[in-house]
Design a protein that fits this description.
By secondary structure, the protein is α/β, with parallel strands linked by helices. It has a single domain, classed as Alpha-Beta Barrel (TIM Barrel). It contains 10 helices and 8 strands. Strands 1-2-3-4-5-6-7-8 form an 8-stranded parallel barrel, surrounded by 6 helices. α9 (225-245) links the parallel β7 (202-207) and β8 (251-256). Mean pLDDT is 94; it is low at 1-7. InterPro entries: Xyl_isomerase-like_sf (IPR036237), Xyl_isomerase-like_TIM-brl (IPR013022). Keywords: Isomerase. It holds the Pfam family AP_endonuc_2.
């Protein structure tokens, strides 16, 4: 071999793409709502979420009107945070501007908390189908959040909807159904099976822990440990099911959404009983831990 030449190097094989988990924070969840304390500017809260290492930030059109939400578009570009949008349409057509905003902030889909709420399931079905048709027309996927005070208010009705509409995908915030059905320990096997059906249709997950009577509880309080463990088990089941049907380059979003008062429990002084910012970071850690466990199991 001539001087100056080198032995050929063996390039390590490239790791094939695998599904990824991304953790988002909610802009609504960054509100403090402390008596006598003004809220930090929206731009400052974007910067704080970015500095904390979240992958993205979700806008909730139930907490911010469309005009104010449009003003956040430059903040996504400036911070590099990925976008996500939750809409509360009160008509079929009212979803359309939210779909347009989703494109502007790079939201991969819109979470729909539908405010058209027929009483009968047979009357709900054409509403869901109409929103799905509008989403196809605009080229933006939608997921229907399992949420109270909307078309998916009730677990039983939602189970009938997903049976009737195979194209209907869900965003699982199971805290609402724990309260909706007043689930009591031990959770009946029939109820667990119903939740499993919801998880099997869910393409994203939201981080909040409920008890049978409270939609959001401090996760570090020892009396709430069994509820935290219940939700961790559901998230594991949901993540595992999603991974089984995902393409290699798909991304799963887990949204930390610990809401301010009156979601957050307060004392007589009007102050919250726990630190939601720190709790969200802990939920992020726990979600990543579940994902890492599933990665290890897949590689074994």
């Amino acid at each position: 071999m001539s001087r100056g030449s080198s032995l050929p190097t063996t390039r390590a094989p490239e790791r094939p793409p695998v599904p990824e988990l991304e953790i988002y924070q909610s802009l609504w969840a960054t509100e403090l709502r402390r008596p006598g304390v003004p809220e930090a500017p929206v731009a400052e809260r974007f910067e704080r979420v970015k500095a904390a290492g979240y992958d993205g930030l979700a806008i909730d059109l139930g907490a911010m009107d469309l005009a104010a939400a449009r003003e956040t578009v430059p903040l996504y570009a400036r911070t590099g945070l990925k976008g996500l949008l939750t809409a509360f349409p009160r008509s079929i057509e009212e979803l359309r501007p939210a779909l347009h905003l989703a494109k502007d902030i790079g939201s991969p889909y819109v979470v729909v908390v539908g405010q058209v709420m027929p009483v009968r399931v047979e009357d709900m079905i054409p509403v869901i189908r109409a929103w799905l048709a509008l989403a196809r027309e605009e080229g933006v996927p939608i997921q229907f959040e399992t949420h109270r005070n909307c078309i998916t208010n009730d677990l039983y009705a939602t189970l009938q909807l997903i049976d009737a509409i195979p194209q209907m995908r869900l965003a699982a915030d199971l805290s609402h159904y724990v309260v909706d059905r007043e689930m009591m320990f031990p959770i009946p096997a029939e109820t667990l099976a119903q939740v499993s059906r919801i998880l099997a249709r869910s393409d994203s997950f939201q981080g909040r822990v409920a008890t049978r009577n409270q939609v959001q509880v401090p996760i570090a309080f020892p009396q709430h440990k069994r509820w935290l463990d219940l939700f961790l088990g559901w998230w594991r089941e949901g993540f595992e099911g999603w991974r089984a049907r995902a393409a290699a380059d798909d991304t799963l979003i887990f949204l930390c959404e610990l809401g301010p008062t009156e979601y957050a429990i307060t004392g007589a002084d009007g102050l919250e009983l726990s630190d939601r910012w720190e709790e969200a970071l802990e939920l992020r850690r726990l979600a990543r831990e579940i994902w890492a466990d599933l990665d290890r199991a897949a590689a074994a």
